[in-house]
Amino acid sequence: MRLSRYFLPILKENPREAEIVSHRLMLRAGMIRQQGQGSFTMLPIGKRVMDKVCQIIREEQNRAGALEILMPTIQSAELWRESGRYDDYGKEMLRIKDRQDRELLYGPTNEEMVTEIFRSYVKSYKDLPLNLYHIQWKFRDEVRPRFGVMRGREFLMKDAYSFDLNYEGAKAAYNRMFVAYLRTFTRMGLKAIPMRADTGPIGGDLSHEFIILAETGESQVFCDREFLDLEVPGASTDFGNDAQIAHIVKEWTTPYAATDEMHDEAAWDKIPADDRLSARGIEVGHIFHFGEKYSKPMGAKVQGPDGKEHNVSMGSYGIGPTRLIAAIIEASHDDAGIIWPESVAPFDIALINMKVGDHECDSICERLYDAFQAAGKDVLYDDTDQRAGGKFATADLIGLPWQVIVGPRGAAAGEVEIKNRRTGERETVSLAVALERFGAAE
Amino acid sequence: MRLSRYFLPILKENPREAEIVSHRLMLRAGMIRQQGQGSFTMLPIGKRVMDKVCQIIREEQNRAGALEILMPTIQSAELWRESGRYDDYGKEMLRIKDRQDRELLYGPTNEEMVTEIFRSYVKSYKDLPLNLYHIQWKFRDEVRPRFGVMRGREFLMKDAYSFDLNYEGAKAAYNRMFVAYLRTFTRMGLKAIPMRADTGPIGGDLSHEFIILAETGESQVFCDREFLDLEVPGASTDFGNDAQIAHIVKEWTTPYAATDEMHDEAAWDKIPADDRLSARGIEVGHIFHFGEKYSKPMGAKVQGPDGKEHNVSMGSYGIGPTRLIAAIIEASHDDAGIIWPESVAPFDIALINMKVGDHECDSICERLYDAFQAAGKDVLYDDTDQRAGGKFATADLIGLPWQVIVGPRGAAAGEVEIKNRRTGERETVSLAVALERFGAAE
């Protein structure tokens, strides 16, 4: 993408309304624009990050056997009366009336709707296990939305729902999502620690939050340092092997870890002082097992191998991709701006032409631009007439993993500079080396 | 994907509520489930088609220079008061109040919001042309939603918005979208005919609908048969060349074409009788030039080369991907079910194991399944214990372009059958030929 034809509205000043660094950087880097209380447009560069985040989530959901669907945002109140949650949910639910005065609502979550889908089609244990997920906008009318996309009212959520014959099956489904979450966050360059959690309005008796550690975290968390060394399961993990998956979950739930609400001082005191890690954390995922909470009132039953009808045992599993973008920035930035992990960077390479109009600079840039793209790299080519200092500042701010800098002196000598955004290391190399570095043919 | 682990809730009976063939087939093929009046879940196979349709739209928007963003579904009433449309829009607009009694609405379209984004950042003609699009859910509270996703209340829409200094620039932007639309529909196997149209509540003075011909179409259309032979511009079309793009538009707007509302009997009578094509049509896209209709009241101005401020000249460009899925089915089906064009098929190949449990059948199927997938094909492998007749009926109903059928007699001889869903042609071939046919290595 040529920056001259792109829409990247960089802000020079720190926006006053932004209280936390991710909100500030997302506004400054032209990723988002606020449209209302807790409501944001993803601008082009923000949309690119969102797509990459969603794609990783999707790949790991699919790998774990979940199937993607897409449910509507608007739901009928009737459905929520079946589960008994319509009156319980309170003012966070955005309630709507249509032109015929029917009561609707903007879905804050989808347990009821997906249970309705399930009961309409699935009648036998032979069709289980089943896990359906979607990535869809949700609305929760928070009293005080803030911190940008970290706590919005309209936000994107990946929510998966598992259906099993009994607790044993449901626990295996829970475990698969647990492991999928470990993999998902790791692929985004995050260290996420699963912590026992309260189940809140979703209900149920087993729940983990996945928390990443960041100084600006919203809540106090406590865990054993052992977590920092645990190995995250690889891509070859066999999600069909319940015992192997259960083993991984055991490993990741044995050391002490708790959010503030679940914290147990007695257990904490037993950990050697050097191993105690008390820090701020950001919730990036939340999984629940709630058994028959929805299947029973809503009549979602299957026939078991015993010929009898059983209420299915369910769980739900959420990740907020928009919030996750902010969390990644909280965990990975410096004074100059964002530092994207390669897997979610909006572009791989910032190609910086220091002197547009200089014949050598222009021709080398054009050549690199074509070659890098042909090698499958996403390149943002700064071909604008801004001065070099401004270009460097922009590249640092938007945080692409690599900068390839083409200036008149180097160009005359057939050389360019490569800068690693994370380490700050700079290296002057020949054109041939620059091409090779990014897998491009000469 | 193994069908035994997939969620494909086929209906054996024709659902009574479905009045048109696409609605009937989408329900029967397990693509959608109705969740409320004019509101549908895309089930796994429907979601796959939707993704492919959206990806083609996206590629052609990008090719034409549009940039993808994502605006929220909920908008503030305040914004719509600025343009004067809040009171005009009528009961089709879903109006909402939040917990603080602020007036919100579920966006039926996004002219106001995108104009607000534009005016916040863009100040100079040097940043033009600009075209921003998103693919997002819309809600229009139709009195009588019907025909499945063809006329829903909550529906997906790709809406693009162009901003230019003056009419000349805006017309060039309009032309680029015009040509992008021709390419988009062609890639989905559709013949779309652009027709001068009424501008309705969007406003403006220049507008085309893109109509595909289908017996079950919602409206009467009239055009010159010449359209059927016009060549659609190729992938190498230079969208940077305004003159070339204008030439293509001229070619596609010169022969007579009109919807019922715009029909001109006098002009029609001048066409030789043999060339007159009077048919039913389905609108699949709609583009508008409306100049300063929103930029003027909302103060979206840029400084021109003359140093003066100019209200930008705008257009908007819509395609409904969910409706488009139904339109493709209306245009491509037979008595047995859907016939997907390859570009939007949910899977490329239905691999049918006629006798699960037979050693030869199972091992050949496993081998083909792995090899086809390694060759980049999406394969739906019917490994269920249903009888062969049911498997054939399902494969025909869901309409994948190719069926590869493995039965015990053929398997013993190292042969499989390949069926083309569109032509019905069947061919018995060796395993080696079957592999080669789909680009797979032995």
Can you offer a commentary on this structure?
2 copies of one chain form a homodimer. In chain A, strands 3, 7, 8, 9, 10, 11, 12, 13 and 16 form a 9-stranded mixed sheet that branches. Chain A is built from 14 helices and 23 strands. The first copy, chain A, has 442 residues and is an alpha+beta fold. Chain A is globular and about 80 Å long. Helices cover 32% and strands 28% of the residues of chain A. Chain A folds into 2 domains: 336 residues, 2-Layer Sandwich (BirA Bifunctional Protein, domain 2), CATH 3.30.930; 92 residues, Anticodon-binding domain (Rossmann fold). At the A-B interface, strand 1, strand 2, helix 2, strand 3 and strand 4 of A face strand 1, strand 2, helix 2, strand 3 and strand 4 of B. Chains A, B: It comes from Mesorhizobium denitrificans.
At a glance:
Chains A, B: Residues 55-341 form the Aminoacyl-transfer RNA synthetases class-II family profile domain. 2 copies of one chain form a homodimer. Chain A is of the alpha+beta class and 442 residues long.
Question: Mind sketching the topology for me?
Answer:
The structure is a homodimer of 442-residue chains.
Chain A: H1 21-28, E1 32-36, E2 39-42, H2 44-63, E3 67-68, E4 74-76, H3 77-83, H4 85-88, E5 94-97, E6 103-106, H5 111-121, E7 130-139, E8 154-164, H6 167-187, E9 192-196, E10 206-213, E11 219-224, H7 242-253, E12 257-259, H8 265-270, E13 276-291, H9 295-298, E14 301-303, E15 309-311, E16 313-319, H10 321-331, E17 333-334, E18 337-338, E19 349-353, H11 359-374, E20 379-382, H12 388-398, E21 402-406, H13 408-412, E22 415-420, E23 426-430, H14 431-437
Parallel strand pairs in A: 3-7, 19-20, 19-21
Antiparallel strand pairs in A: 1-2, 4-6, 5-6, 7-8, 8-16, 9-10, 10-13, 11-12, 11-13, 13-16, 14-15, 17-18, 21-22, 22-23
Helix pairs in contact in A: 1-10, 2-6, 2-10, 6-7
